[in-house]
Please model this.
Amino acid sequence: MPATRKKARTPAPVQFPRRGTPPDRTGYPHYEAIGQSNARWRAEYLRELKRRRAERQALLEDRAGGRKAQKQRAARRFAQVRNALAENMGLKIAASAPKSAAKVPAFRFATYGAGETGLKGPFRHADVLTLWLRVPGAAWADPREGDGELELLLLLPRGHAPKGGRPLVLALPDCGPWLTGGEDPATTARGLGYALALRGAVVAIPKLPAYERFSVTLNKQRIAEGTCTLGALLYEAAGAISALLAHQANHAPQAVRAWVAGRGLGATLALMLGALDGRVAGVLAEAPVLVGSGEDPEALWVPRFNRTTDLPELAASLAPRPLALVAGPRQKDVLAGPPCDVRALARAAKAAFALHGARTELKLFAANKHGAAADWIVEPKRSQGAKGPRGELARGAKPQRIYAIEKIKSAAAWKRARGKLSAAYREAGGIPARNKPLGVKLIGAAKLRDCTRQEYHVRTGRFTYANVTFLRPLGPEKQRTTILCLPGSGSDVARVESQYAHEVVAKGWNAAIIDARVALYPFHPDIPESGNLINQSVHDLLCALDYVAKRNDVDATRIGAMGVSQGGTHSWMLAMLDERVAAAAPVCGICTWRSLPKPQSLDTQGPPLRTALDSHSFYYYTPGVLHFADQQDLIAMIAPRPLCFIGADRDYCFPLDGMRECDRDLRRLYRMMGAGKNYEYVEFAGPHSMPPHTRRKAYAFFRKVLR
Model:
């Protein structure tokens, strides 16, 4: 019988990186290994989150030293989480809440539209009085968002209040579809609001101004300002609690706390507010949106959240205050945020409630049973809730730009400030103190018609690599001027080589192309951990520079950096953090962060964006950077080394007024340092691009200053 012929196994198709160039017949560029390592990193990070969850739960269940010691450990941990989370969100825990509602600071209420809530037909009830209130000064108070006015829809049960008093409930609206905008208060009233009011609770439903522009776009702006969209919503929700307590002071002077309830994102906010604000008597959370999964939607990113805590721990921190959890529908709503498993929240919180002897204060309800949850809340023994931690939620410090170079009076003053600014940026961006490669491996070499090409993998972390392609002119090996050619967000080493690296070689210089790993393999825990994407790339670039500068064919005193878009930004960031970059010529890569939220001008060429915020992905926004510096302040760390700043007058990524503000401040600083001849500003007519004349300008600049 003839031997059976084995069928040849078809190799799996290679998955090239996002926006990466497929390899040529020689295999260049070699990105497969980097992609595989990045996939391992993603899987390892998700496992790390599970390990952290287990450690937090084990800490809560640790019985060493007895029950008293266990409660003390839990209290210390929850206090630490509370303060850290508030700080991460640009908030703070203010002084203790007053002992009676009569001492709540007075609000100037403007009552309007009594009985007119838009709730008509079967949604209007004779047993409930509806009232609209305007509360000035209780919103986030951003000049772009109005005058800081908060509106409250009150649902007031008619008739005599029960002996124990009516529970006060703040019902928080859900977000809109796809995590944009906010639910109208009238919609919240039709569901959760009336379910509570018809059972005797006084219900306040706020119209939160921070919801009006709630989106990924707004979160980018907030992150740079040192907060986040959820932080702004929580601040306004805390203001709504103050207004509710103040309004009801004459009717219920004994009430100094209020319940917080919500559905969807409103439920997530309710859990967070309960963990942070001591005036929260209890929480009703129906189908909360998941935060801290490791793959959260960008609109929900909170700086350092995953490093600080998780949603199950926040639920546990509510003990012994009552917590009602209502499951979401089994069928996932594609328009809603990622659902949270309320059963997992209940399991995590169970140990904390048992520790306080309050097992009955934790209750889990089936989907759509918010009516039963409302009945549970208004029970006389539970309606006033329990005492929470001391203090209430307040807003933290607003951005100040501590190191604004426009305020610097002398070169000596700037030299003193520069080191502090560098340290502050490294800390805010999560850039490691050590920026040395863990290993360098040659993975490909070729002789081209004008140069030799060597391709390396530079290991920059346990799972991270940078791809370095080094082009050296033909001829004897000798030390040469070397230009770091840094790709933009839609580019990689192969594309940069085809675009302009051989122009650099034609000048007799080495061209070292270092990939923008963040654009190719974008996974990084970034903002929910301790930094952001661009600074992961900066770390990679610094490690690659350390290798390049030590090569025998590189003159370490004559290294320049250039690139367009993200490559332009990377070039000045690399120069500001490493003095081995002797000169930088960024093209279309500089403006102020404060100019990005401004409306786009009508003659801007590019995508139809309302602002330049969305022209950059989240990689561009370092948490809290505007608390100490804007871009020109960071770029000033390059001085007195040469800088050629090239920008387009119709750039949809880098607004012209932001570019010109940077130019004005940098020109003044260079002159103040006696290095005015080392600074050049070139503004060309056109859109976001790197036309040949801008490259020629960069080459001429390098030839002049690097000699």
The CA atoms of residues 365 and 372 lie 8 Å apart. The radius of gyration is 29 Å. Confidence is low (pLDDT under 50) at residues 98-106, 112-123.
